[in-house]
Automatic annotation (TrEMBL):
Residues 76-290 form the SsuA/THI5-like domain. The keyword Iron applies. The lineage of its organism: Bacteria, Bacillati, Cyanobacteriota, Cyanophyceae, Pseudanabaenales. Pfam families: NMT1. This is Thiamine pyrimidine synthase. It comes from Pseudanabaena yagii GIHE-NHR1. Belongs to the NMT1/THI5 family. Residues 30-42 have a biased composition (Polar residues).
Length: 383
C-alpha cells in the first residue's frame, strides 16, 4: 500500500511541476486582462453558464470546459451551442470557465480539472513531452490558421520581416510566437539573434508598442490588434507579419482532451463536437447575432462590443473560414500540413519526435455533411 501511495504522490508532483513550468511559458496572454481591457468576465472566479433553454440537467452528462482566456467573441460557437440548447439536445450539460492562456489551460486539463479545453496542440506536445503518462490529444481543430504574428506600426518603417534586423521586439517570456521566432527568422532568412527582446508582463505588451518602448511585438493578432485599435490606432497604422505567410503554416487552437478521457467517453466527445460545430455554422451564418449573444452573456458587462467585433472579424476571415475548411469542413486537418507543423514544433521546442497520431485524431468528428461551411449566400455580414 505504501508503494502505491508513493507512486501516486510522485505522479501528482510531476504534474504539478509541469504546471509550474507551463504557466511560466504562457503562450499568448489575453489583451483583455491588461490595462487595455476589451472584454471579459468580472473576476477570475468561475464563469459558469448553463444551457438557457434546458435548465433540467437531470440525466445529462456533465462536461467541464476551460476556455483559453477570458470569454471573448472567439468563443461564440461554444456560447451559441450552449444558449440555443444544442449541447442539451445531445444529452450534455456543458459548463465552462475562463482560462489564463493556452499553456495554463493545457496544464489544468492535464490535472483532470476539466474534461475538454480550447487550446493549441503545439503547447500540448510540450506538455506530453514532460508528462508521457498523462497525454493530451486534439479531437478537433476549430482555428484553421494560427494567429501567430509580429505586429508593428507602419510609421516605424519596418516594411518586411528582413527589416526587423537590429530592432527591439517585445513579448512576455513564454509567448508562443516569441518561442517560435527562431523558426520564423530562419524562414525569412535573418539571424534569430539579429533582434533584441524586451520582456514585459502580458498586460503591458501593447502599451510598450504604443509608447514606442519597442519597435514591434510578437503575439496573437486577435489579441494584439484589437488592443492597439482601442489604444487609438487604426488598421491603416498597423503592419502585421503573419507567420503563416512566411513558412510557418500552423493550425490554431483545437478542442483538446486527455487521451484517457477520450478513450472512456467517445460518445460524449462525438456529441460535444456535433453540437459545437452546429454552433460554429450559426456563427458563420449570422455573426452579428452570435456576437450579440456573447456580449449579452458577459456577466461583468465590461465587454467592448467593437473590440470583440474586430476580434471575431479577424478570426472568421483568417482562422475559421479558409479554402481548406471550405473544401473539407470544420474541425479536420490536412495531414501533410499538420505533419510539417509538428516537425517544426519539435525542432523549435526541442522535443522528442512526435507523429500526427500522437497529438491529433479526427475519429470523433461528425460526418462531413454535418460540419460544412454555410454557403456564401447564407452568410450575413458582421455589423
Amino acid at each position: 500500500m505504501r508503494h502505491i501511495f508513493q507512486k501516486q504522490l510522485n505522479r501528482i508532483l510531476l504534474i504539478a511541476a509541469s504546471t509550474t513550468i507551463l504557466v511560466a511559458c504562457n503562450s499568448a496572454p489575453p489583451s483583455n486582462t491588461s490595462t487595455n481591457t476589451v472584454s471579459g468576465d468580472k473576476t477570475s472566479a468561475p464563469a459558469t453558464s448553463q444551457a438557457a433553454t434546458s435548465p433540467d440537467k437531470k440525466g445529462k452528462q456533465a462536461i467541464r470546459v476551460q476556455l483559453p482566456f477570458l470569454k471573448q467573441s472567439l468563443d461564440a460557437p461554444l456560447i451559441v451551442a450552449i444558449e440555443k440548447g444544442y449541447f442539451a439536445e445531445e444529452g450534455l450539460d456543458v459548463s465552462y470557465e475562463r482560462g489564463f492562456g493556452n499553456a495554463d489551460t493545457i496544464s489544468k486539463l492535464g490535472t483532470g480539472k476539466y474534461d475538454l479545453a480550447f487550446s493549441d496542440m503545439y503547447n500540448a506536445m510540450e506538455f506530453n513531452d514532460k508528462n508521457p503518462n498523462d497525454k493530451i490529444i486534439a479531437v478537433a481543430i476549430y482555428q484553421n490558421k494560427a494567429p501567430f504574428s509580429i505586429v508593428t506600426f507602419k510609421a516605424n518603417g519596418i516594411k518586411s520581416p528582413a527589416e526587423l534586423v537590429g530592432k527591439k521586439l517585445g513579448a512576455p517570456a513564454g509567448d508562443g510566437p516569441r518561442k517560435l521566432f527562431p523558426l520564423f527568422a530562419k524562414e525569412v532568412k535573418i539571424a534569430p539573434d539579429s533582434v533584441t527582446w524586451e520582456t514585459m508582463e502580458p498586460k503591458l505588451r501593447e502599451t510598450f508598442l504604443l509608447q514606442g518602448k519597442v519597435d514591434a511585438v510578437s503575439g496573437f493578432y486577435t489579441s494584439v490588434v484589437p488592443s492597439l485599435i482601442k489604444g487609438g490606432k487604426t488598421m491603416d497604422d498597423i503592419q502585421i507579419f503573419f507567420y503563416d505567410e512566411f513558412g510557418l503554416d500552423f493550425y490554431g487552437n483545437g478542442i483538446l482532451a486527455k487521451k484517457d478521457f477520450a478513450d472512456k467517453n467517445p460518445e460524449a466527445i462525438k456529441s460535444f463536437l456535433k453540437a459545437y460545430f452546429r454552433g460554429m455554422q450559426e456563427v458563420i451564418k449570422d455573426p452579428t447575432a452570435a456576437l450579440d449573444l456573447v456580449v449579452s452573456t458577459d456577466q461583468s458587462k465590461l465587454m467592448d462590443r467593437e473590440a470583440e467585433k474586430l476580434r471575431l472579424k479577424l478570426a472568421i476571415e483568417r482562422m475559421y473560414v479558409t479554402p481548406e475548411v471550405e473544401a473539407a469542413g470544420f474541425g479536420g486537418a490536412d495531414m501533410k500540413r499538420l505533419e510539417k507543423s509538428i516537425t517544426q514544433t519539435v525542432e523549435g521546442f526541442k522535443l522528442k519526435p512526435v507523429t500526427v497520431a500522437d497529438i491529433f485524431t479526427d475519429k470523433f468528428l461528425p460526418p462531413k455533411d454535418k460540419r460544412l461551411v454555410p454557403s456564401a449566400s447564407d452568410r450575413k455580414p458582421l455589423l
